[in-house]
C-alpha cells in the first residue's frame, strides 16, 4: 500500500482544478439567474466563444 507523504508535498491535477472552477462558475451563474440558463449563457460563462476565437476555428 502506497501512502502519500505527510508535509508540504501536494499533487495538483490542473485539469481537474480547472473543471472544478468552471463548475463553480456555472453554479454561481445558475443561482443568480431568474430562469434556466440558455445554451448561449452557458457558453458565455464557460468562455466558449473566446476559446473558439483564440484557436482560429
Overall description:
- The chain is built from 3 helices and no strands.
- With about 55 residues, it is mostly helical.
- It is elongated and about 50 Å long.
- The model has no long low-confidence stretch (mean pLDDT about 80).
User: pLDDT average, as an integer?
Assistant: 82
Alpha-carbon Rg, integer: 17 Å
SS field, number of helical segments? 3
Distance between the termini: 47 Å
Q: H/E element string?
A: HHH
Unreliable runs, pLDDT <50, ≥5 residues?
A: none
Please report which band the strand proportion falls in: under 5%, 5-15%, 15-25%, 25-35%, 35-45% or over 45%: under 5%
State the major sheet. Answer: none
- The strand count comes to 0
- Inertia-based shape: elongated
Give the class from helix and strand content and strand pairing: mainly alpha
Work out the helicity level: 55-70%
Produce the secondary structure layout.
Layout: H1 14-32, H2 39-46, H3 48-55
Primary descriptors:
57 residues, elongated, 3 helices
Care to give the gist of this entry?
By secondary structure, this protein is mainly alpha-helical. 61% of the residues lie in helices and 0% in strands.
Amino acid at each position: 500500500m502506497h501512502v502519500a507523504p505527510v508535509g508540504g508535498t501536494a499533487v495538483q491535477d490542473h485539469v481537474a482544478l480547472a473543471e472544478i472552477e468552471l463548475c463553480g462558475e456555472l453554479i454561481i451563474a445558475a443561482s443568480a439567474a431568474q430562469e434556466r440558463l440558455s445554451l448561449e449563457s452557458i457558453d458565455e460563462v464557460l468562455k466558449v466563444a473566446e476559446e473558439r476565437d483564440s484557436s482560429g476555428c
